[in-house]
């Protein structure tokens, strides 16, 4: 082995060693205690948790795959808001959530969580269509699109979806650039 290769391998080994501890800490901090029976929200109120759960389930309902409630998206989002937002940003995010909740309640004529699943879907579809078509989205539309993105991110990064619904391989193996789509199967989690 020449000197250049030795330096290269030493640098790679040092990089892995330096990031291993911080990566483990980040991954551990992302795991919310969502499976316990006595779970209580840390940032959201119980009413907000219920609204976010119904919003998420309307967006991603259970079919032949788990729904948003099945993978506990609402609990993940509460933990996300708790762990990753500074107090001043958390206040802004909670104001956006309140704006969205107020709009959903008013659009449905009663609290969003009390609406039928069909009525929830209708209210959200109207808001989605308006947000997509708007040249300059209103605060309600921005709050809706932001929550929609967070719900989808939480859903598709959940362990259950990543390992049971999407194809999962922690180490995918060699790169194969030109293979038929039929050989690929379903979408990959990583």
Summarize the structure.
This protein is an all-alpha fold. It contains 8 helices and no strands.
Give the tally of β-strands.
Answer: 0
Distance between the termini: 34 Å
Strand percentage lies at: under 5%
Report the average pLDDT across residues. 83
Outline, from the CA principal axes? globular
Secondary structure class reads: mainly alpha
Q: How would you sum up the major sheet?
A: none
Please tally the helical runs, counting DSSP H or I stretches of 4 or more residues: 8
CA gyration radius, whole angstroms: 21 Å
Spell the H/E element sequence: HHHHHHHH
Estimate percent helicity: 55-70%
Low-confidence stretches: 11-34
Describe this structure in words.
The structure is a single chain. The chain has 190 residues and is mainly α. The protein is built from eight helices and no strands. The longest helix has 27 residues. Helices cover 64% and strands 0% of the residues. About 13% of the residues have low confidence. Helix 2 packs across helix 5, helix 3 crosses helix 6 and helix 4 packs across helix 6.
Write the layout of secondary structure elements.
Layout: H1 3-29, H2 46-59, H3 73-84, H4 87-108, H5 117-133, H6 139-156, H7 159-165, H8 181-184
Give descriptors for this structure:
single chain; 190 residues; mainly alpha; 8 helices; 64% helix; globular
């Amino acid at each position: 082995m020449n000197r250049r290769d030795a330096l290269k391998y030493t640098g790679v080994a040092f990089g892995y060693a330096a990031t291993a501890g911080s990566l483990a800490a980040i991954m551990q901090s992302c795991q919310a205690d969502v499976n316990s029976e006595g779970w209580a929200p840390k940032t959201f109120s119980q009413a907000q948790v219920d609204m976010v759960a119904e919003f998420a389930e309307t967006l991603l309902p259970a079919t032949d795959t788990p729904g948003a409630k099945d993978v506990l998206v609402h609990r993940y989002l509460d933990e996300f808001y708790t762990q990753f937002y500074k107090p001043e940003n958390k206040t802004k995010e909670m104001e956006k959530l309140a704006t969205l909740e107020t709009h959903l309640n008013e659009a449905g004529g009663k609290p969003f969580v009390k609406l039928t699943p069909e009525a929830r879907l209708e209210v959200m579809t109207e808001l989605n269509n308006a947000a997509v078509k708007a040249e300059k989205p209103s605060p309600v539309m921005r709050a809706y699109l932001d929550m929609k993105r967070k719900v989808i991110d939480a859903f598709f990064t959940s362990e259950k979806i990543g390992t049971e619904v999407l194809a999962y391989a922690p180490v995918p193996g060699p790169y194969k650039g030109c293979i038929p789509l039929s050989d690929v199967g379903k979408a990959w989690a990583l």
